Amino acid sequence: SMRELNPTLRELAKRCQTILDSVRSTSTACNEASTRTQIEYIKQAKQLLARAKQLEGGLYRAVQATTSISTFRKRLAALVYFLNDEHAQLIRELSQPVIPAPEVLHLRLAQHQKHLQALQRLRQEGMTAERTQRRSKRQSLAGLPRNWRIDLCKRAAHGRYIFPLVVLALTGCRPSELVAGIQIWRDGDPATGKDLIHFRIRGAKVKASQGQPCRTISYEANDSHPLMVVVNELLHDQENSQVFAQVNSAVNLTVEIRRLACSLWPKHKHAVTAYCFRHQFAADLKASDDEEATSRGLGHLSAKTRRLYGTAAQASKGHRNRPLRVEADRPVKPHLSGRFNKQADSPTP
Predict the structure, then answer these.
(1) DSSP state string for 292-335
(2) Confidence class of residue 211 from pLDDT cuts 50, 70 and 90?
């Protein structure tokens, strides 16, 4: 009867809320996801729920069907976001003065509870499949000439990507940050009397607890690095002593880098991409023994993240990047680990 059904609906909703609260307490997906990420979460969650209908074991088995820990975590984040949104919609319907179809709502809440229980179990047990060994992207540098960036820029000298490639090499910026545009200007430093060239980068991966909103990498204008000579000459020819480096598409930039790399090193085992410039930039900064500058230069808020990027042993020979200053909006959070809470910044094997 209607009287018996309404308390049952409220009790179901209460149980769902309890499960959802326990799951959300361990996730920031609902609070910090960008609009683009939210769209991806919805798409992925719907795919998982559709796949769950065909599998014995349902949603739990659909999420566990991977050997990649990053894929597993993305699936969990997508489900947390999607089920949270679905829960809010169900509560709105339940709160109406008159519920048009209480029997249908009861079935939807029961299914919602089943999905939340699967999510809770996934949270508690974690990934059960044997993980595949993740290959570090910095391995792509292995086998390349020590000054490969200069060689690649020379090959691109007459193409439309030459200046973005030079900036990529000197800043280690993300391809998406080049799409946003990087400001470059020259001025005098009152403290030293030297002319400096600055690269101002707006961070691409920034949240309340992640990334640097803006960072500035500064070189001496008379730096002898061949790529700095190119930038210095370009600014010298500008009336306003300021330029912007920008590309229309990060994908097209990577395609061009791969094409140039294949023409130069056809037998190289790994794909050369825009992120190879980022790893090489990190390697050069690490070789200068300023680990915190490496984090600031890469746009990281946590010192822990820089361990994933190039090693000092991979630094360029002869034409190494040597910024005079690397500044960022936020102080870098130290990575504390180990028995004595020492800073653990050495790269992982």
Answers:
(1) HHHHHHHT-SBGGGGGGS--GGGPPSSS----SEEEESSPPBP-
(2) very high
